Amino acid sequence: MIKQIKYDKLEDCPILEWQTFCGELEKLWNTTKSAIPELDVEKDEQKNVAAEIFQQLIYDYALYRNHPDRLKVLNFQLAEA
What we know:
Layout (H helix, E strand, L loop, with lengths): L14 E2 L1 H15 L13 H19 L5 H4 L3 E2 L3
Parallel strand pairs: 1-2
Helix pairs in contact: 1-2
């Protein structure tokens, strides 16, 4: 079970940005493909899958950004450019 870290301020949350996100997903896919075959994503599809997941995270971030309990529902801040 993954323990969720709670932060006092949104500014203290880790930053979610595209390159780091893709790197983490690639690491996940490479380390789990033999144990969890359902997570094995073809190399040419990885960017598309990453983009879909990232888009959903952006949506969740936008939805909860002004939520009164945002520190309970968000454990990242989006790297806004």
